[in-house]
Design a protein that fits this description.
Number of strands: 18
Strand content: 15-25%
CATH class of the largest domain: Alpha Beta
Radius of gyration: 24 Å
Oligomer: single chain
Shape: globular
Distance between the termini: 30 Å
CATH superfamily of the largest domain: Spore Coat Polysaccharide Biosynthesis Protein SpsA, Chain A
Number of helices: 15
Length: 480
């Protein structure tokens, strides 16, 4: 991947404090972003940030905005831009009806009605149907003589595009009107390589259980919170169902050797090259989720098989668990369920809280802040352990449960507790029992795929946890 030639934010570029970023009363200390960052500002930077929003006007404010933006404590608020200079690339294999629906939506939206569209037929069995649909909507058709996979189909479109930006849309999505303008506005940042919308469920007349589950737990829906896309964070990747890229940034494009996880790989390679990526949920596209049980399970297992290749290509960037040694030790002690180990776990947490408090003496309440951060880390580790036991490492957990009664009870408790917590957080319309059952099927299928991929590649890389050596990811000194 080429590196960005210039990361300097232009004059007129505006940033705004991100939701969830905490500031001290004097404004000098901020905590936010993912992974969590503590940012200490100079007096000049505090004045520049003011009430939480400022516009780049010189080299000093550009440097400050870049530092805060990369820390994840502010979001860009770019001015609207006209939609143009963009080619839409649609990789497809058969699915003429879905292609017709997508192209119809693009042509019905005034902003995208005149954009060039490249349809890449990836070895369809009935190519004439696709050709008829593409011709009717004024799209150019490119064809592979045999199926080469979605990555190769997207790359073919990328090579034939002649515009600065390329929007990749899978054939089973339906963009909402006005979806493209908020994404193109992000490219006011010269170091931005990729912007992605939120992918939500396409409404169906009579939704079944899986339809209702996918509405809130689809792996394509990255949620309502905007932010930078950074490995080992709350937004570690975005799916390629719909993305917009800067053509000069992505080089040759997707890795054609990968049939699964090529979108995650692209995000990681761009990040490693120094490019920025953003998720913009205000832009939305709809997606027809797979909801027949057999196909749904096969899809989830297929996603899991890509974990091995990703772990080998990007060591430490796709761990099943990312936690501090002290929090892992504290959770192990708490699992003993006895007073003395529980007291030791409390002592570990207390010592960590004191260490964190000493590093932020200028917080409004250092002791309270240290305690909250430490408890949050402990809770996060506990939740990750629950997920590991029921998702990536469930074959090991089941084997342990088969020979140990205590392990059996813990596994059952973990499976039920995690499902009920997720039901409450997600606001699922399903009953708690149904949601928990589908959640477990989801995890069993994905975990089975992870183990299949690991065995096929002869590696344990996708199963290895990663240790975090800090409660807080890092300090950032924002000096203008």
């Amino acid at each position: 991947m080429p590196s960005p030639p210039d990361a300097t934010l232009p004059h007129g570029f505006t940033v705004e404090l991100a939701h969830g970023t905490h500031r001290s009363r004097d404004g000098r200390l901020m905590a936010g972003g993912s992974p969590l960052r503590l940012v200490r500002l100079t007096d000049a930077a505090v004045r520049r940030l003011g009430d939480g929003r400022f516009t780049v006007a010189d080299a000093t404010s550009a440097a400050l905005a870049r530092r805060l933006l990369d820390a994840g404590v502010v979001h860009p608020r770019s001015a609207p831009v006209p939609v143009g200079d963009t080619t839409v690339v649609v990789p497809v294999r058969d699915r003429a009806d879905q292609l017709d629906r997508l192209l119809g939506a693009l042509r019905a939206d005034p902003a995208t009605s005149d954009l060039p569209v490249l349809v890449v037929d990836d070895g369809s069995e009935h190519p004439a149907s696709l050709a008829e649909v593409a011709c009717r909507h004024g799209a150019r058709l490119l064809a592979h003589p045999y199926n080469r996979g979605p990555a190769a189909a997207r790359n073919t479109g990328l090579r034939h595009a002649r515009t600065p930006y390329v929007a990749f849309c899978d054939s089973d999505v339906v963009p909402e009107p006005g979806w493209l303008a908020p994404l193109l506005a992000q490219f006011a940042d010269p170091a931005l390589a990729l912007a992605a919308p939120r992918v939500t469920a396409l409404p169906v007349p009579a939704p079944g259980l899986l339809d209702r589950y996918e509405e809130i737990r689809s792996p394509l829906d990255m949620g309502a919170a905007e932010g930078p896309v950074v490995p080992v964070s709350a937004l570690s990747y975005v799916p390629s169902a719909t993305i917009v890229v800067r053509r000069e940034a992505v080089g040759p494009g997707f890795d054609e050797a990968m049939r699964v996880g090529e979108d995650v790989d692209l995000c990681m390679r761009l990040h490693e090259a120094g490019w920025r990526l953003r998720y913009v949920p205000s832009a939305r596209v709809r997606h027809r989720h797979r909801t027949d049980l057999r196909g749904w399970l096969a899809q989830r297992a297929g996603y899991g098989t890509g974990a091995a290749d990703l772990a080998l290509r990007h060591p430490g960037q796709v761990p099943p668990l990312y936690a501090a040694p002290w929090s892992l030790a504290a959770c192990a002690l708490l699992l003993r369920g006895r007073p003395v180990p529980a007291a030791l776990a409390a002592a570990l947490t207390g010592v960590t809280a004191l260490r964190v408090a000493r590093r932020m003496p200028d917080a409004d309440h250092p002791a309270r802040a240290g305690a909250l951060l430490s408890l949050a880390a402990l809770r996060g580790t506990a939740e990750q352990l629950l997920r590991c036991a029921t998702r990536h490492h469930w074959p090991v957990a089941v084997a342990a449960a088969a020979v140990n009664r205590r392990a059996r009870y813990l596994l059952i408790a973990a499976a039920v507790a995690e499902g009920l917590v997720d039901h409450r957080r997600s606001g699922s319309s399903l009953s708690p029992l149904t949601h928990t059952a589908l959640r477990r099927l989801d995890d069993l299928a994905y975990g089975w795929g992870v183990w299949q991929g690991a065995l096929r590649r002869g590696t344990t890389a996708p199963l290895k946890p990663r240790l975090a050596l800090r409660v807080v990811s890092r300090w950032t000194a924002a000096r203008p």
